[in-house]
Write a structure and sequence with these properties.
alpha/beta; Rossmann fold; five-stranded parallel sheet; 16 helices
């Protein structure tokens, strides 16, 4: 699998000299991160300053990986050429296989690759991204890519993958990204096995439409958090999955039961998927489900309390008012701790530290109305104070708003604290995380 992420030489088969074409953009992206690149196009002498070759077999240098963007009728010839050259790995970007009714050709493609010992990602995908060295096989332009971090992303949908990558950019780092489309060969089971031993990866996030061997998948889950967004849950979704990647979607109730049994976290929406990943990648697991809220605007806390009431794994414990010594007389000393609109950064930090010391509180949730003048005028002190916290307990910030709040979200991320938009989202995500933490503790002791 290493050849996919750190290849010594890369052949781009179907490289194009025309900007905007898939073969051109793939080559441009590969060149940006790997000097040993060999464009393969028999009709052009050079592209982007790189000599072109009529075939993979005509390349003199070593080729570990071939990235392929040719029409389906040419694919078997390309695989034969790669096999004779000694290529170990291929990323098939091209579509037009099982998802288009060409199941026989896709099967022949896999059988030919196996004959030569080639592992293959795709077809019908955007391929891979290794944030550690910047290598990617994308044909997208002007994407904001996240820096190196501890989250690996596996996805059947390139579009879902692009959305996650751009959401993560500037907020959260990733280790490796794989879009495997039809997953004719390499699938999530292979990647779970690989990432389980990957020292760069602490959390594995998976978007899946189908799973062919559920038992093997769940039994192969590594001793790392695995967060899954499973689509194709309904008859309409299953039909859409079949036309998208040729997938046969799984019965969701069976899938969800298996996820609970094996400790995978199953997200119910893209937003929840994104929120759970952000929280788990930056915060310690909670020891329990007690939530402590501190705010300068109580409305969102009331909504959060309603959702906590219906939650299965988190609660809102009472707190001793004596914990809040030193706060001003206008503060309402309870849980939620309401600092009112007069709150400054100093007041928030005192409230957060009090909750860090209270044994009934396992998760600290500050709700910020950043637009209130006393807080806005002390934001530098807020971020300085948050950056110096020990993070003994998970801290997840909440706010609502648009442009100004979006700016604070990025600043909060630099402090190592995720900022979630709205109380409903944060409670749903934390309920799933608390359930996982309990599962992990029970299975560790058994």
């Amino acid at each position: 699998m290493d050849e996919f992420f750190d290849p010594a030489g890369v052949a781009v088969v179907g490289a194009s000299s025309r900007p905007g074409k898939i073969g051109y953009e793939i080559l441009r992206n590969v060149i940006s991160s790997n000097e040993k690149v060999y464009p393969v196009n028999p009709n052009v002498k050079s592209i982007l300053g790189k000599k072109c070759y009529p075939s993979v077999g005509s390349i003199k240098g070593k080729v570990d990986l071939a990235v392929v963007a040719v029409s389906p009728e040419k694919i078997l010839e390309v695989i034969e050429g790669c096999g004779k050259k000694g290529v170990r790995a291929m990323v098939i970007i091209s579509g037009g296989f099982k998802e288009a009714g060409n199941e026989k050709l896709e099967k022949e493609m896999v059988e030919t690759a196996k004959k030569y010992g080639i592992r293959m990602i795709g077809p019908n995908c955007i391929g891979i991204y290794n944030a550690k060295n910047g290598f990617n096989t994308f044909f997208q332009k002007d994407m904001d890519l996240p820096e190196y971090g501890n989250v690996a992303i596996l996805t059947q949908s390139g579009t879902i993958g692009i959305g996650l990558l751009e959401n993560f950019a500037g907020q959260l780092g990733i280790s490796k990204f794989v879009s495997y489309g039809n997953k004719a060969d390499v699938d999530e089971i292979d990647m779970l096995d690989y990432l389980g031993g990957d020292e760069d990866t602490d959390i594995i996030a998976i978007y899946m439409e189908s799973i062919e061997n559920g038992r093997r998948f769940f039994e192969g889950i590594a001793d790392k958090p695995v967060v899954i967004l499973k689509s194709g849950r309904t008859p309409l979704g299953k039909d859409a999955a079949t036309s998208h990647t040729g997938a046969m979607a799984t019965n969701y109730s069976i899938f969800e039961g298996a996820a609970r049994q094996y400790g995978a976290i199953s997200a119910d929406s893209f937003d929840e998927f994104y929120d759970i990943i952000r929280i788990m990648a930056t915060q310690p697991l909670p020891r329990g489900g007690g939530v402590g809220m501190v705010t300068n605007g109580a409305g969102p806390c009331v909504i959060a309390a309603d959702h906590i009431y219906d939650a299965k794994n988190i609660s809102l414990p009472e707190m001793d008012a004596g914990r809040f010594a030193g706060l001003p007389s206008f503060a309402i000393l309870s849980n939620p701790l309401d600092l009112t609109g007069s709150a400054t950064a100093e007041h928030f930090l005192k409230g957060i530290k009090a909750m860090e010391e209270d044994t009934s509180i396992d998760i600290i949730m500050p709700f910020f109305v950043f637009q209130d003048a006393p807080l806005m005028n002390s934001l530098d002190k807020l971020y300085s104070g948050l950056s110096s916290l020990e993070h003994k307990k998970p801290i997840v910030a909440v706010s609502v708003g648009e442009k100004f709040v979006k700016k604070q979200e990025k600043k909060m991320a630099k402090c190592g604290i995720p900022l979630i938009e709205g109380p409903t989202r944060v409670i749903k995500a934390l309920d799933k995380i608390a359930e996982y933490a309990r599962w992990k503790n029970e299975n560790r002791s058994s």
